[in-house]
Write a structure and sequence with these properties.
Elements (H helix, E strand, L loop, with lengths): L4 H5 L1 H12 L3 H28 L7 H48 L3 H6 L4 H7 L6 H28 L2 H48 L1 H7 L2 H53 L5 H42 L18 E10 L2 E11 L4 E6 L5 H8 L7 E6 L2 E2 L5 H5 L2 E4 L10 H5 L9 H10 L25 H14 L4 E5 L7 H15 L3 E5 L11 E6 L2 E6 L1 H7 L1 H12 L1
Parallel strand pairs: 3-8, 3-9, 6-7, 7-8
Antiparallel strand pairs: 1-2, 1-4, 4-5, 9-10
Helix pairs in contact: 2-4, 2-11, 3-4, 3-7, 3-11, 4-7, 6-8, 7-8, 7-11, 8-10, 8-11, 10-11, 18-19
Bound molecules: adenosine-5'-triphosphate and magnesium ion (MG).
The site of adenosine-5'-triphosphate has 13 residues, from strand 2 and helix 12.
Length: 578
């Protein structure tokens, strides 16, 4: 999901939209702002107080009061800064947290096609890393910028009040010197940080996929090949990081230079004026104190600029993700009225790859419709379109005569339970798997009964029963157990429409027959669309659709299709030969 030209043009609009939608801790930010403003004001008072304390006096005891006051003001500044920095840290953490929550929500509501348009695993880095790169800029800008500008303006007015134009000029001369440094440093920082983040995302994505499929790598003996290609990604990251280290040092150099050069600029002119007797000592000290803080506040724009560039990069990477259409609607979900499902001249392609071509059929309400056909003929795609994972590129899909395109995702999908092909479980216990779609957890009796129904009555008993941990993606289950558990979960969901894709393909003949019987019993009166290679499981369907290379070759009952469809006859012959 690389950034588009429009996203680059609207990067700052996207940035603020994103952050404001995620939510900001306004009260805490207001407190931080006041602390920051207080510190800026006290810094001005401090300079004048010290100048006053150091003014020529008759004896030292006359200076004690002003010195003590300057000391107390100094301590107050320290206190305000420490408390302010601490609260600002909390604000930053809260903004990160809100943005992460917002981004995670958006990702789960992305349309399937958008998730698939990039590398979904790179999303992980977007969610964990990029979401933390936006807050420093906003927090610094909103909390500290106005106090900083306030200080810079008031300080300039005060120095102008001394009546020596050279002092005002040197003070203002600090600004271009610091800004030039900031600009150079910001540009190189942006480029390299962007590059490092992209490389980290690529490495995470690569390792996540390969480590998750370690068995395949071992089975083919391709460990060394994988290590070599993994190494190439690591080396690219290494290169980017080395460039990053150079950039960091260049930044440090510029930063030090920005400390040193303005300091010379600040000290020399008033020192000359003091020697010439054109200003007194108090004026000299007041100017030096004001000007050094002036330099510090100006130099903080260097940090702000770096934060800005970081935020710009992170926004570009994130807005590719967050500006996509969401499946979540602001309006309350509307559950459509049930009826027949009708495909009317539907075509669909995955990118340039056509998968369905002018498909028309009706799956009657309350009936069992089977989808059969050779591998790759478009059966799963048809179910994916019914589930609204994708929109047809042509034609319409209707529910009870109405186009499903106009129905909200949540309300429409609430009518369906879908058991996708090879549907994995998630890490957790057998109980978690069965309760996955339950509004409230089922009781043990219901769970034990459903396990018995799908033929898993005794399987988990020696392993801890319902508390057995099935592992990532159900990896600690056999292929058949995984399918049976998927069916068990499906049987627990009481929706009027059920979509099943190869629910029993991993089972032996006897287990398939038993499970099919349980499924047919549970589905009586509900609308079932089922995909199967094993025609014995769909022989009794009210209507069978034969898919052939993305088209419908024939529609009918088992008996009819044996007469009319060559593909069906072929598939049936295979079943009988098995
Ligand atoms: N996510 C995807 N992206 C791109 N192409 C896809 C995707 N899913 C399926 N296809 C392609 O679409 C076509 C139809 O695939 P589909 O999965 O619908 O077939 P199927 O009939 O379910 O096959 P099988 O019986 O093997 O499950 C195939 O050519 C396949 O390569
Ligand atoms: Mg399929």
């Amino acid at each position: 999901m690389n950034s588009t030209k429009a996203e680059r043009t609207h990067v700052w609009r996207n940035y603020f939209t994103m952050i404001f939608r995620a939510g900001l801790p306004w009260v805490l930010m207001a407190v931080c702002f006041l602390l920051s403003l207080g510190a800026a004001q006290l810094a001005l008072v401090f300079a004048n107080q010290v100048a006053d304390a150091l003014s020529p006096r008759n004896n030292l005891s006359d200076a004690t009061g002003p010195l003590l006051a300057a000391f107390l003001i100094g301590m107050a500044i320290v206190l305000l800064k420490v408390v302010g920095a601490h609260l600002q840290g909390i604000v930053t953490a809260k903004v990160d947290r809100n943005l992460q929550r917002y981004a995670v929500e958006r990702v789960f509501y992305l349309k399937t096609a958008d998730v698939e348009s990039g590398d979904p695993r790179e999303l992980i880095t977007r969610l964990t890393e990029d979401t933390t790169k936006n807050s420093p800029f906003l927090v610094d800008l909103m909390i500290n910028e106005i106090p900083r500008l306030y200080y810079l303006i008031v300080a300039t007015v005060q120095v102008a009040g001394i009546g020596r134009p050279i002092l005002t000029l040197t003070l203002l001369g600090v600004i271009p010197v610091v800004f030039l440094g900031s600009f150079v440093s910001g540009r190189i920082t942006f480029k390299i940080r962007n590059k490092i983040q992209t490389k980290i995302a690529a490495l995470t994505a690569r390792l996540a996929e390969k480590i998750n499929h370690a068995e395949t790598i071992k089975a083919y003996g391709t460990e060394d090949k994988e290590i070599a290609t993994g190494d190439a990604v690591i080396m690219e990251l290494d290169k980017a990081k080395k460039q990053g280290a150079l950039v960091d040092q260049t930044n440090a150099f510029i930063k030090n230079l920005m400390w040193f050069l303005p300091l010379l600029l600040i000290i020399i002119p008033p020192a000359v004026l003091l020697f010439n007797g054109e200003i007194n000592q108090a004026g000299f000290y007041a100017y030096i104190l004001i000007a050094t803080t002036f330099r510090t506040y100006t130099a903080q724009h260097l940090d702000l600029w770096v934060f800005l560039k970081d935020a710009q990069g992170a926004t570009l990477r994130l807005s590719g993700l967050l500006s996509k259409e969401s499946e979540k609607s602001d309006k309350p979900a509307k559950i459509p009225s049930p009826g027949d499902i009708e495909f009317s001249d539907v075509s669909f392609a995955y990118g340039d790859h056509p998968a369905l071509c002018n498909v028309s059929f009706t799956a009657e309400q309350g009936k069992k419709t089977a989808l059969v056909g050779l591998s790759g003929s478009g059966k799963s795609t048809a179910l994916n379109l019914i589930e609204k994972f994708y929109d047809p590129s042509a034609g319409r899909i209707l529910l009870d005569g109405k186009d499903i395109h106009d129905m909200d995702y949540e309300g429409y999908r609430s009518l369906f339970t879908y058991l996708p092909q090879n549907a994995p479980g998630f890490a957790g216990t057998v109980r978690d798997m069965l309760n996955y779609c339950a509004p409230t957890p089922y009781d043990d009796k219901t769970l034990s009964e459903v396990l018995k129904t799908v033929g898993l009555g005794d399987d988990f008993e020696p392993l801890g029963g319902l508390e057995y941990e099935i592992g990532d993606g159900g990896e600690r289950l056999s292929g058949g157990q995984r399918q049976k558990l998927g069916v068990a979960r499906l049987l627990l969901c009481d929706t009027p429409y059920v979509l099943m894709d190869e629910a029993t393909s991993a089972l032996d003949v006897e287990a398939t027959a038993d499970l099919q019987e349980a499924i047919d019993k549970a589905m009586a009166g509900r609308t079932l669309l089922t995909v199967a290679h094993d025609l014995t499981t769909v022989k009794n369907a009210d209507r069978i659709l034969v898919f052939n290379q993305g088209r419908i070759e024939a529609i009918g009952t088992h008996g009819e299709l044996l007469q009319t469809s060559p593909t069906y006859r072929l598939l049936w012959k295979e079943v009988q030969a098995a």
